[in-house]
Amino acid sequence: EVDDARAAVQWLHQQPFVDPNRIYTFGHSIGGGVSAVLGLLDNVPIRHGGSSGGLYDHTTFLVWQIDETVPFKNSPKERSVRLLHGNVKHLQHPHYAYVGIEDVPFDESVTAMSQEPKGAHPLVIERVPGDHFSSFDESIRRYLKLTQQER
């Protein structure tokens, strides 16, 4: 999933109609997790990434394993390479994470990630009104405002 997203960004970067200095990624839920993990890769030509409800920790995949929705071998190593959690200090690009105030399952991971050692690039976490789904509109509004201010 991350390899596909990286390939898409690299393809966009080569297109003549794309400003190569203004490529951003943003996703909701697991798509937000993919956007966050893209920020760990140095060969992804993005200015920064964003997410809405995408700050997963390893327990998420354990819960999903019960109903077999995880499309990979659910081992500690496989989980760790699919998470920003535990890897914040390795960010190669800034990441702006928006999490709903009522999105209670993310409370622990938000706390843990905000306390992780920092690297050269920041993880900025903002709590927004709503739950996992109703927080999306406000999250994307804030992220788009951020990208528009960077012109």
How would you explain this protein's 3D organization?
The structure is a single chain. This protein is of the alpha/beta class and 151 residues long. It has a four-stranded parallel beta sheet, with helices on both faces. The chain has six helices and four strands; from the N terminus they run H-E-H-E-H-H-E-H-E-H. The longest helix has 14 residues, at 136-149. The protein has helices at residues 2-13, 30-38, 58-66, 76-80, 107-114, 136-149; strands spanning 24-28, 48-52, 95-100, 123-128.
Strand arrangement within the widest β-sheet reads: 1-2-3-4
Query: Gyration radius, to the nearest Å?
Result: 15 Å
Kindly report the average pLDDT value.
92
Q: What is the overall shape?
A: globular
Helices, by number, come to 6
Please give the share of residues in helix.
Answer: 25-40%
Q: Which structural class matches the secondary elements?
A: alpha/beta
Uncertain residue segments: none
Distance from first to last alpha carbon: 30 Å
Largest sheet: 4 strands, parallel
Order of helices and strands: HEHEHHEHEH
Portion of residues in beta strands equals 5-15%
**Total count of strands:** 4
Task: Give the tags.
151 residues, alpha/beta, 4-stranded parallel sheet, globular
Quick structural summary:
The chain is an alpha/beta fold.
Strands, helices and their partners?
Blueprint: H1 2-13, E1 24-28, H2 30-38, E2 48-52, H3 58-66, H4 76-80, E3 95-100, H5 107-114, E4 123-128, H6 136-149
Parallel strand pairs: 1-2, 2-3, 3-4
